Amino acid sequence: MQFNEIIGREKTKSQLRDLVEQNRLSHALLFLGKEGSGALPMAIAFSQYVLCERGKSEPSPPSLFGDSELTIQTIIRNDSCGVCPSCIKVENLVHPDLHFSYPVLKRDAKHDRILSTDYINEWRKFVKEFPYGNVSDWIDFLKNSPTAKIESGINKQGNITVQECDDILHKLSLRPYEGDYKILLMWMPEYLGKEGNRLLKLIEEPPPGTLFIFVAEDENEILPTILSRTQLVKIPQAENEEVEKYLAGKSEDPEKASMVAGITDGNIREALRLLQNSEENWERMVRDWLNLTIRNKVDIQSKWIDEVHLLGREKQKQLLQYFIHLIEVSIKLKFLQPDEVRVPVDSEKDFAATLAGMCEVEVLEEIVNEISKAIYHIERNANSKLLFHALTIRLYHLIKEKYLILIQ
Q1: Phi, psi values for residue 359, rounded to 5°
Q2: Under a CB-based contact definition with an 8 Å cutoff, are residues 264 and 321 in contact?
Q3: What does the alpha-carbon distance between residue 144 and residue 150 come to, in Å, rounded to a whole number?
Q4: pLDDT tens across 7-63, in order?
Q5: What letter would DSSP give residue 194?
Q6: Which three-class secondary structure state does DSSP give residue 160?
């Protein structure tokens, strides 16, 4: 995986290249990025850059026609070459000096030994198919993989075990096989408990050429003893324009790609999931919901909630995320001219303008808070019927003082 395959974040890529070029590379890095930021693909691209055999100082060949603006040396400096044996091995996640560690499941209740290497084939397939996936996607992928052979009925919580730490100590005690570096890339160190303290001495005094790369979403869940020994590399969310351009290459409907990019606020994982389920008319569903709420049609509200219940957890989250997106547009319209607010669909802007006329900013912000809480509880398997009933009642009380009928 090369940097040019990662969506946007050119400043971050430049900072990472400079760490190597200017010899400021720490032996332990923490790539910290929210869900959907692509911190894992960025870490793999960086690993490929470090391991690339055609070194960053390789001289350009003599030119027969004078200097070119883009030389081979420039290409190598800006990215890994992508064609040397090392790059090809990293691309296929089989490089002998690139080791992975990640949360895994026990195969069955009889065996306590759990190592990442037991699931390396599943891991390679997962990273190829879902490079922007989160840990829930990975655990689901593992449970549903016929080759993983996870026995039903056992604990389904992912874990990075004490045996895994011992395996890491063994791997990194060896000299690099092919180059100057050996790299341990640990994804989701939040799942590493106190047993992770076994790695402290190795992190503090690693053998020459050893590089730790931790890839995390929440620094507060990482062992403080490990966190304090890493150099922080923040991976920002992609810009909406960058996500839109990426999605446009995966959809024949540019309007749909633009709408999805606007809703997901840089979360590439959610953008891809929304694009796959973009046949849903979220705008119409939110319109219906608000009309039923404002009119207080309890019997019809129940039928609407029954329909939402059948959508399933992921689509329920997408519906609520779209509602938040509409409210954000509404707030912008309160402070900016309509032509200054970029919205892919005119009806969406009209809807947002109506919302802006219904409620003051404080009320809109409170609605966002309530919806965000609902998303949190949906992710934790709350009863969706009870949740949407409670949220509907809360919305009614928030906007009942001043309302408009939304269907024009």
Answers
A1: -135, 150
A2: yes
A3: 8
A4: 988 999 999 999 988 888 889 999 999 999 999 999 999 999 999 987 544 444 444
A5: G
A6: strand
